[in-house]
Write a structure and sequence with these properties.
The protein is of the alpha/beta class and about 525 residues long. The chain has 23 helices and 14 strands. It has two domains: about 160 residues, 3-Layer(aba) Sandwich (Rossmann fold), CATH 3.40.50; about 240 residues, Aldolase class I (TIM Barrel, Alpha-Beta Barrel). The strands form three sheets. The chain has a six-stranded mixed sheet, sandwiched between helices. It has a six-stranded parallel sheet with strand order 7-10-11-12-13-14. Helix 3 runs parallel beside helix 23 and helix 18 runs parallel beside helix 20. The two termini are about 25 Å apart.
Length: about 525
């Protein structure tokens, strides 16, 4: 069969979900193709390839509307195309199957379900009893009215033998994107996270898979390094980004990490980046990983307020732990990247007790980042996503309507979607989010920023300043890659367009103005009822 995978955009982190499902399909003998909506002509690709299966994988809530429009356009051209959607959105919002243009959705881990679905489609066999796959027949016939426990019991166990998975099909992405010439390569050495952060889907994911496999699972060190070596040999590579939720999960330096440090240094030998947490980083980790090539790492701060960190987002780490972790990184000359979440709402009575305004909490986060001497800090807005405890919190307090999930902007770097803030507060949040990054490079600007600049209607100017500061810190501090002057200019232009869409436009503006939307809307003139009657 011919399988066309659809991705909205490819930036600098490889779409590893696309590369994996392509590799799994090719291992079965199928042909795979890729169309990128922001750069390709979807209609032309559809007519040229004439795929049997159209796949939208790794779909996040803010992107769902894009892919749904694309699926409708495809069905308008050929009703015989079988459309499949998977990712976080369908895992926690399987009702997506009720859209007329979606034939099947995958929930949870589909490493086994995806090949089973392809085999059944290829042989014309029944697809309605495959675990982790919802079709209209089994959804309306059984699962729509089933409770949470019944649905989760029917899911297949988590994939445990990661070494049995094929190497990622990077060729599919590299042949038609700038990533072929961008010498940073992304990997995931593990899956899963045991922590309880309420803004993340992992706690609910762990609940779904309770008793169905380990929460945290890794490739073997040898298997991981073998794939890294192959990539290094095939494509110019001078930096590795490990994009695991967490590169390690406890304060103890375990045997896997010790083996990795030795093997990676000997067989790969490239500087790398990884993610961890302030309350599990120890000096022993840095002593082990710095000689192996550790150059930079992410440790999210999220909020400078103890109440928000402990009670609302459940980070379970103290201010002292945060300060100590960043101090250790400074001592070992490891560059730091801190994520922060602005616009986390606090109940009015708590704000009154603390004598704080909404923006005070975000200023407090900036101050903690300054105190930690963070190399690069990025600040996004709190976003309610299906399946996250934080979503229940904002919905129960009337700050967000669950019917608006599909209206969310594709990036949490845009304006706050919550109704508990005034437009002035939302503008101040957005301004502070961008100027905070600038302030970490120039801490002396702190008072000028928080007292004056964030109140001015100069968001586009701040975005321009933010963009160049971020670019400098990313390329020369966090991910130092050797780019030619020509490729540097190309990437500056590409990055500016992408950052502008993330931060300066609302969801509706972004959707209607993007090149993708123009192409898709041009071929999806008819209106399809999103709800399919029960068969």
């Amino acid at each position: 069969m011919k399988i066309l995978l659809v991705e909205r955009i490819v930036e600098y982190i490889e779409p590893m979900h696309v590369e994996l499902i392509s590799a799994l399909a090719r291992r079965l003998g199928h042909s795979t193709y890729l169309t990128i909506l922001e750069q390709d002509n979807f209609e032309n690709d559809l007519h040229r390839i004439r795929p049997d299966v159209l796949v939208f994988s790794g779909v996040k809530t803010g992107e769902f509307h894009y892919y749904l429009h694309t699926a409708r356009a495809a069905k308008n051209i050929s009703a015989d195309i079988f459309t499949v959607m998977g990712g976080p959105h369908t895992t926690f919002f399987p009702e997506a199957i009720e859209n007329a243009s979606i034939d099947a959705v995958g929930v949870g881990e589909c490493d086994d379900a995806w090949p089973q679905l392809l085999n059944a489609l290829d042989k014309g066999e029944n697809i309605h009893s495959i675990p982790n796959i919802y079709t209209k027949e089994n959804w309306f016939g059984r699962w729509k009215n089933a409770d949470f426990n019944e649905r989760t019991m029917a899911l297949a166990a988590r994939t445990t033998a990661l070494d049995d998975l094929p190497y990622l099909d990077r060729e599919l992405v590299y042949t038609k994107t700038h990533l072929k010439h961008f010498p940073l390569r992304s990997f995931m050495s593990s899956r899963g996270c045991p922590f309880e952060c309420t803004y993340c889907f992992e706690p609910k994911f762990n609940l779904i898979y309770r008793g169905k496999g380990p929460i945290h699972n890794r490739y073997s060190v040898q298997r991981l390094c073998e794939e890294l070596k192959e990539v290094k040999e095939r494509w110019k590579t001078n930096f590795i980004k490990f994009y695991d939720d967490l590169f390690w999960i406890s304060k103890k330096v375990d045997p896997w990490l010790e083996e990795f440090a030795e093997t990676y240094r000997r067989e790969v030998g490239l500087p790398f980046f990884c993610l961890t947490r302030c309350n599990i980083l120890t000096e022993n980790h840095l002593k082990l990983l710095k000689p192996a090539g550790l150059h930079s790492l992410t440790m999210s701060i999220e909020s400078g307020d103890d109440y928000i960190r402990d009670q609302i987002i459940k980070r379970h780490m103290t201010r002292e732990q945060i300060l100590n972790a960043f101090k250790l990184c400074s001592q070992y000359n490891v560059k730091t990247f801190a994520n922060n979440i602005f616009g986390i709402p606090v109940k009015p009575e708590i704000m009154k007790q603390q004598n704080k305004t909404a923006i005070d909490y975000d200023i407090g986060s900036l101050d903690l980042n300054i105190e930690c001497k963070v190399t690069f800090g990025e600040c996004g807005m709190v976003y309610p996503y299906p399946g996250c405890e934080l979503s229940d919190y904002v919905i129960s307090n009337g700050w967000f309507d669950k019917s608006d999930f599909e209206k969310l902007h594709f990036s949490y770097n845009g304006e706050s979607p919550l109704n508990c803030f005034t437009q002035k507060e939302k503008r101040m949040q957005k301004n502070l989010a961008m100027l905070s990054t600038v302030c970490l490079l120039f801490p002396w600007m702190r008072n000028m920023i928080v007292k004056t600049l964030i109140q001015l209607p100069l968001t586009r100017l701040y975005h321009l300043i933010f963009f160049f500061v971020k670019g400098y810190l990313m390329i020369f501090k966090i991910y130092p890659v050797n780019l030619t002057f020509h490729h540097l200019l190309i990437n500056i232009f590409r990055s500016y367009i992408n950052e502008s869409k993330k931060r300066l436009q609302s969801y509706d503006e972004n959707f209607s103005s993007s090149s993708n939307s123009k192409k898709v809307n041009k071929i999806s003139i008819i209106q399809i009822d999103p709800e399919t009657p029960k068969p």
